[in-house]
Amino acid sequence: MRNYGEGAFINCGKLSEVILGDNLVEIGRVCFSGDIKLTGSLAIPASVKTFNGDEIFKGTGLSEIIFNSDLANVPQGCFQNCKSLNRVRFASQITQIQQDAFNGCSSLNSLEVGQWSGLTKIGVRAFKDCSSLNGEIRLSRSCDYDMESSFENCGFTVRFE
Predict the structure, then answer these.
(1) pLDDT per residue over 3-24, tens digit each?
(2) How far is residue 104's CA from residue 150's CA, in Å, rounded to a whole number?
(3) pLDDT tens digits, residue range 10-64?
(4) Residues 121/97, Cβ–Cβ less than 8 Å
């Protein structure tokens, strides 16, 4: 399958594990959201080029996301309220993290990004209430972000280069 469309697995209450195939290109809006028991680790294959829409994994029980693709944009609310999510690893440089992307991911303590300096945008409340996320990030002075809410209740220290 090349495309998981909008809401493809929304509210599939018994869905607990997903293995994404190497031919998958696009994952649609709210694809894995709602009443869903998805847990554990999820690897996004290199073939995925687009997250088409927002809230794709919102509220799931995933603990780890590994991006093996060169996805440059994390959509709005993509991992919002994933309370068990503790690690996210991106394969390449992320350029945009949209509004509420990781909002409420209170267990998130490891966010591995190739180069923070390549970020051009961090949306409103992108890391709000990620209270377990500590350390320092270095952003370009040209990065667009909301100083008051992007990192609200988050342990990050932001430095500018």
Answers:
(1) 999 999 999 988 888 999 999 9
(2) 12
(3) 999 888 889 999 999 999 999 998 878 889 999 999 898 888 888 999 999 999 9
(4) yes
Return the bridge partners of 3, or none: 26
Token pair in block for residue 62 = 């995933």
d(CA 31, CA 29) in angstroms, rounded, equals 5
What is the maximum alpha-carbon separation in the chain?
Answer: 47
Q: Which amino acid is at 127?
A: F
Task: Scan for tokens 């990192």, then name that residue.
Answer: 151
Q: Is 2 exposed, middle or buried (0-12, 13-18, 19+ CB in 10 A)?
A: exposed
pTM, two decimals, is 0.91
∠ CA 38-20-35, rounded to 5°? 25
Total number of residues shown for the chain? 161
From first CA to last CA, the distance across the chain in angstroms is: 43
Binning the chain into helix, strand and coil, the percentages to the nearest 5 are: 0, 30, 70
Q: Which two tokens stand for residue 90?
A: 């991106």
